[in-house]
Amino acid sequence: MRILITNDDGINAPGLAVLEEIATELAGPGGEVWTVAPAFEQSGVGHCISYTQPMMVSQMAERRFATQGSPADCVLAAVHDIMPERPDLVLSGVNRGNNAAENALYSGTLGGAMEAALQGLPAVALSQYYGPENRDLDDQFESARGHGLDTLRRLLDKGVWTKDDYGIFYNINFPPVPSDAVKGTRAAPQGFRRDMGFGVQPAQSPSGRRFLWVTGAPQQQPTSEGTDADWNLKGYISVTPMRADLTAHDALEALKAIE
């Protein structure tokens, strides 16, 4: 198997090293793992592409490249320039922090997987939830490292993989617990943290200029029961099927009243 990996935390991120280990095992002895990742952190860029400016690509080692671009840029560069053949699978992550609930909408990790799906490739985003039970571990990616390979193998074997225009890609979040405390895997819809959105906080620089810092919110508040973050906080790996189609299909029938 030929696997492309990317992330949004940057090419030197520890989560990418975890994903390299997982991908190497998944690809097998005769397989290939190609790494094309941002040279610098690109968290929160979503599905951004560098449409108005060029990106520099630097080869770091055999099958290992850094780009001055977003995760979606990395996928485009890999598929259309760097790799001699298209990958069989694209993996994005392992992100430092969860991409469950509304976080998924901002995530560069998911942006890389989404772009792969738009290119007609099977794709999975992987993220490691942080919390009181794992943030002080020597290996904060312990549950992802311990369960990532098996989860991907089961998903590749039993998941739904489509070839339609907006093909399915997957969002996996590993729970904020040690590896041996993971209770299992749950297929789950994307949740929503009410009253927990992003905001801004003003700050003044030493030169007197006014800036705004984007602020997040506590990640330990559960979402609706049975959704991704809810299962994660209960100790389960969540697997969420996603599409890039933004149509609110449930509203189309009612909207016919305007025709």
Notable features of this structure?
259 residues, alpha/beta, Stationary-phase Survival Protein Sure Homolog, Chain: A, nine-stranded mixed β-sheet, two-stranded antiparallel sheet, 27% helix, 25% strand, globular
Write structural notes for this entry.
The protein is of the alpha/beta class and 259 residues long. The chain has one domain: Stationary-phase Survival Protein Sure Homolog, Chain: A (3-Layer(aba) Sandwich), CATH 3.40.1210.10. The protein is 27% helix and 25% strand. It is built from 7 helices and 11 strands. It has a 9-stranded mixed β-sheet, sandwiched between helices. A two-stranded antiparallel ribbon has the order 9-10. Helix 1 packs parallel to helix 5 (142-158) and helix 2 (71-82) runs parallel beside helix 4 (108-118). The radius of gyration is 19 Å and the shape is globular. It starts with a strand and ends with a helix. The model has no long low-confidence stretch (mean pLDDT 96). Its cofactor is a divalent metal cation. It is found in: Cytoplasm. One of its GO terms (cellular component) is cytoplasm. It holds the Pfam family SurE. It catalyses: a ribonucleoside 5'-phosphate + H2O = a ribonucleoside + phosphate.
